[in-house]
Design a protein that fits this description.
- This protein has about 500 residues and is an alpha+beta fold.
- It folds into 3 domains: about 5-100, Rossmann fold (3-Layer(aba) Sandwich); about 130-200, Dna Ligase, domain 1, CATH 3.30.1490.20; about 205-445, 2-Layer Sandwich (D-amino Acid Aminotransferase, Chain A, domain 1), CATH 3.30.470.
- Helices cover about 40% and strands about 25% of the residues.
- The protein has 16 helices and 24 strands.
- The chain has a 5-stranded parallel sheet with strand order 3-2-1-4-5.
- Strand 11 (about 230) and strand 12 form a beta hairpin.
- Helix 4 packs antiparallel against helix 5 (about 105-115) and helix 12 (about 395-410) runs antiparallel to helix 13 (about 420-425).
- The longest helix has about 40 residues, at about 445-485.
- It is globular and about 85 Å long.
- It binds ligand MV4.
- Ligand MV4 binds near residues 130, 163, 164, 205 and 437.
Length: about 500
């Protein structure tokens, strides 16, 4: 591979290109009119405008991206995350046009893109799954029987859903019919596929995912877990590796389950297998994400492996040079997603110009971003400003470093979730490791930040008074002297 096009924008386009360049491969960027001056465009060896700002007129134009690739001799396309990364039709078209899709084969994307076909596929591989059914259900009577069998509360999920979209908790039988009907019609309008299924509802789960790597020669590895339980409305906020609650034995067990999930769909490349874990540390397969994930850096830091480099090597047909027994966890990594949102105003997107933008730096601090001081934060895309990542010998040290990094991260012109991040890392539940997916809902109110802002304002006011008094003394000093003189 001599030339790779990155079909993405922002921090991930930049992060992917850094590795491509490091490997001595040429980089090609694509961009929308809103991103003309973005860092990922300037970083690339070549760059092509796709069209106007909205994604469906730019970053989602698969055919145009393939056309550009062919015209300039691109060998491979890296999709990053989001946009076209989990679009099986796009992956298939890329390959049909004689280019390499840096990711899994389209059939693996297709299988895992549908929750029911994913369940069906992994079933034969001895993967623990939440009690429930693995086929679409429309018959209310049958649904009632199944719900009775697995016991309330149950959860209705859309097969085409994922990331929490189209889920409904049902506490009791008399609500089942109405919720089923709603779930089906919602799934129909949101995904064009009304297939829904039923699972036992796990009330206070942790979200733990396993990173896998699979080459085209049948070798599959797992790179341990990422704990992603701190999330807000299905949007991850903090991720870490390793998870505080896994033992070496449980880790090996989950790792093997993840490898089996990858094997069940002939997975190739970097992928992530998501699990739910209940209070008794039972784990259940949820879904597989067939892309590089936002939170991949925490895995890179604890394993010392560049996941993008591995993706490219695998796409080139190389045999994985790493063995499972070579892999070990060293240290602890934390990631905070910094969003351009106002945590004191219901996390409303905060748009504007980055009047001041200074990122923290130093040993153990990594910032993956695609912004610079003076840039506008466009309204058209994901509001994530950056990922603030820290790495240290243990969790306490990584947390301390994170709090220091948050303090020295300077952003003016827009609101960010940095103060919210500070709240999370200072919280006793996070510190102790005793938290689940309800962390934000259970502990966060805007007042906790307001109070802190007020305290800070109070301290600032006190300091201003002290300074004023000090300055007054300095100014008055000669007067005092002259007073003394007059008194003489
Ligand atoms: C569940 C669940 C409880 N019980 N399934 C949310 C995203 C999608 N991947 C699956 N999700 C869940 N599935 C059963 N049977 C709770 C969630 C869930 C969740 C999972 C991971 C991370 C955050 C979450 C937040 C709310 C609900």
């Amino acid at each position: 591979m001599k030339k790779i096009l990155v079909a993405n924008r922002g921090e991930i386009a930049l992060r992917v290109m850094k590795t491509i360049k490091k490997m001595g491969i040429e980089t090609v960027a694509v961009f929308s009119e809103a991103d003309r001056n973005a860092p990922h465009v300037r970083f690339a060896d070549e760059a092509f405008c796709l069209g106007p700002a909205p994604s469906n007129q730019s970053y989602l134009l698969g055919d145009k991206i393939i056309e550009i690739s062919k015209s300039i001799g691109v060998d491979g396309i890296h999709p990053g995350y989001g946009f076209l990364s989990e679009n099986a039709d796009f992956a298939e078209k890329v390959e049909k046009n004689g280019l390499t899709f840096i990711g899994p084969k389209s059939h693996a994307i297709r299988i895992m893109g549908d929750k029911l076909s994913a369940k069906e596929t992994v079933k034969a591989y001895d993967i623990p799954m939440v009690p429930g059914i693995d086929e679409a259900i429309t018959d209310i009577q049958k649904a009632k029987e199944i719900a009775e069998e697995i016991g309330y509360p149950i959860l209705i999920k859309a097969s085409a859903g994922g990331g929490g979209k189209g889920m409904r908790v049902v506490e009791e039988e008399k609500k089942l019919e109405e919720q089923m009907k709603r779930a089906i019609s919602e799934a129909e309008s949101a995904f064009g596929n009304g297939a829904v299924f039923i699972e036992k509802y796990v009330g206070s789960p942790r979200h733990i995912e396993i990173q896998v790597l699979a080459d085209t020669h049948g070798n599959v590895l797992h790179l341990f877990e990422r704990e992603c339980s701190v999330q807000r409305r299905h949007q991850k906020v903090v991720e870490e590796a390793p998870s505080v609650i896994l033992t070496a034995e449980l880790r090996a067990h989950m790792g093997q389950a993840a490898i089996n999930v990858a094997k069940s769909c002939d997975y190739v490349g970097a992928g992530t297998v998501e699990f739910l874990m209940d209070e008794n540390k039972n784990f259940y397969f949820l879904e597989m994400n067939t892309r590089l994930q936002v939170e991949h850096p925490v895995t890179e830091l604890i394993t010392g492996i560049d996941l993008v480099e591995q993706q490219i090597r695998i796409a080139r047909g190389e045999v994985l040079q790493i063995k499972q027994s070579d892999l070990k966890i060293e240290g602890h990594a934390l990631e905070l997603r910094v969003y351009a949102e106002d945590p004191t105003d219901d996390f409303l997107p905060s748009v504007g110009t980055l009047e001041r933008y200074k990122t923290p730096f130093g040993k153990g601090i990594r910032v993956d971003d695609g912004f610079e001081e003076g840039m506008e934060v466009p309204i058209y895309y994901d509001p994530m400003l950056s990922k603030l990542i820290t790495f240290a010998e243990n969790r306490e040290a990584a947390t301390q470093l994170m709090l220091e990094a948050i303090k020295s991260y300077e952003v003016k012109g827009i609101s960010t979730t940095l103060p919210f991040g500070k709240f999370v890392f200072q919280h006793q539940a996070f510190r102790s490791g005793n938290f689940d997916t309800h962390f934000v809902k259970n502990y966060y109110t805007p007042e906790v930040l307001q109070k802190e802002t007020e305290e800070e304002a109070f301290i600032a006011a006190l300091m201003a008074i002290k300074q004023y008094q000090f300055d007054q003394k300095k100014v008055r000093l000669p007067e005092v002297k002259s007073d003394i003189k007059t008194n003489e």
